[in-house]
Amino acid sequence: MQPEPGTLAQGRGETLTVTIAEETYYLGRDDIHALLFYGQSIPLTRIEEDGISSNGAVFITTVIDGHITVHASGRAILIVTRAGYFTIPFTSFQQVARGDAVSAPLFPTMPDFAGGLA
Questions:
Q1: How many structural domains does the chain have?
Q2: Out of the domains of life, which is the source (predicted)?
Q3: Does any domain span residue 24?
């Protein structure tokens, strides 16, 4: 059996996590709302720890590695990262966002078929 290329899962609070190629990205409640209800593209962000200073403070940087958008057909969510293009059915994304499902797999997509992205 092949491992999944990525996973959408529930995070802490009202967040979702997207795990692709050993990288974990976070989607906040406001971003999820903008994506599902208004069809706006949202940034795909990850948190990177830069180090610890001499007084014990931890330096954290938020990095935008891609974006998520609704496919033109309205039936899928497209995820674009440095690792490639992925898709998840719109209903599966909704189920995880509502809490009806714990997680859902992502499917790799070729750029030519990703809603006109080339």
A1: 1
A2: Archaea
A3: yes
* Domain interval for residue 106: 6-110
> Is 118 contained in some domain?
no
pLDDT of 58 reads 78
Q: Which helix (H) or strand (E) holds 46?
A: strand 42-52
Residue environment code for 87-102, b if the CB has 16+ CB neighbours within 10 A, otherwise e: bbebebbebbbeeebe
106 and 8 Cβ atoms separated by less than 8 Å: yes
pLDDT recorded at residue 54:
77
In a domain, 68, yes or no: yes
DSSP output for 54-117: TTSPEEEEEEEEEEEEE-TTSSEEEEEETTEEEEEEHHHHHHHHHTSSSEEE-EEE-GGGSTT-
| pTM for this predicted structure | 0.81
* Residue 60 is assigned to a structural domain of this protein: yes
For the segment 72-88, the average pLDDT, to the nearest whole number, is: 91
